[in-house]
Amino acid sequence: MTQIAFFALCLAGLVWFWARKKTDPVAVAFASALIYFAPGFFGWASIPVGNGASVTQQLASETYLVMALVIAAIVATTFAVDRIQIRALSVPQSTTFVPTILLGVVVVGTAMSLSTVGVYYLCEKNVMLAQIDGWYYLASYALPLAAVSGLITRQYWIMGIAALFLMMEVYIGFRTGAAITLIGAAMLSGHRIFQGGRQAAIVISAILACGVALFLFPQVAYTLKYLVNDACPIEMVRVVPLPATPLNLDEGQVETLFAHLGTAAPYLEAILHSEPFIIQSVLNSVIDHDFTTDASYLLLQIATGIPGAVTIFGLPPEAPVSFNQMFQPVLFPDMTYGMANSPWAQAYAAGGLPMVGIFVLSFVILLGILNVVFTASAGTLKGVVAVVATWLAFYFHRNDLLAEVGILKQVIYTSISAFIIAAAVWAILRMAHRGKDAP
């Protein structure tokens, strides 16, 4: 019964958003919820047990309740934001410099990071992560901002250069920036899907092509990394070593392989091992095992987004503990790698359904504010808001508060700094121009 009700809610929401014909932050949040709550359509989550193996677990009724609460709140938010009379924001001309400044941040950050991290970028991801510095994160968070703001202002040379940097980032093992860029661009152009005809076909084709490339290119990049593994200071070791001799398949084995690929089994297995199924196993396990945490640490995580919080509130200088550090040793002790977080699992562990309600309410309030600003803005500001909103609307489902606050802080600080620098450059140029015109 709970699964049928969940189906009905999602279907009703899908019909509503299609009739609404808008691709704004709230629509992206709904699409993200459908993706990350996909286990609800199957009725189970995939629980990792180590060494690449996993077992399935039937979803609890409370898991469906949490997912339904999130989706219902997102749908309800549209009724609020669509009733607001929104006036267009006045965007200064100085903002035309913002994409160039953001691209400059990407170039400088990348150059500095290459000078410090160097050949470690050619290593396995777990080795590379231990060496990555703040310069990389500065460039990484500025990259989607530069790409999307360059797109909306039709500064396609910026978009082209940013695309090259995104490919470099995917090559070293990170595709989040490319995904955020794609979703941000879709948020700006997705309304053309509802117009039908040639424009809709172009937008859909572009989104599908980029999406497929995001899945295929990392596999190519992973192979290319092993072609240059001699440059890595640390020996790269495969989890599954390459065979000493080439693998030769006879005709019968090839036919069997292609016959297997022609069935639904390999594709269903790929789905069951995908990130949404792993993430919802966290929520489901928290509920099934009645895993609880203290709620006070949530305030420490939120405070990390406030400048000078350590001094102002007398907080400890070390970073607060993440939710992953709490649940993984207890619920998934055999896992050898860090699992993604679930904010809804974090909320349930800290205070049950009432805390989930607080999380959901806070989420949709922030979502609604970003939706209003997105609708009212234009040009560079709209592009920047699209990226900020994507980090919240789409990416929040796989983070805890600590990670999400850290990401939003970096993105917002970088954006504000770019606007301030752009305003200063504009003022200097105007003063210089007036000086030339003076008698």
TrEMBL record:
The chain crosses the membrane at residues 29-51, 63-81, 101-123, 135-152, 158-188, 200-221, 347-374, 381-398, 410-429. The keyword Metal-binding does not apply. The lineage of its organism: Bacteria, Pseudomonadati, Pseudomonadota, Alphaproteobacteria, Hyphomicrobiales. This is Uncharacterized protein. It comes from Devosia soli. Keywords: Membrane, Transmembrane, Transmembrane helix.
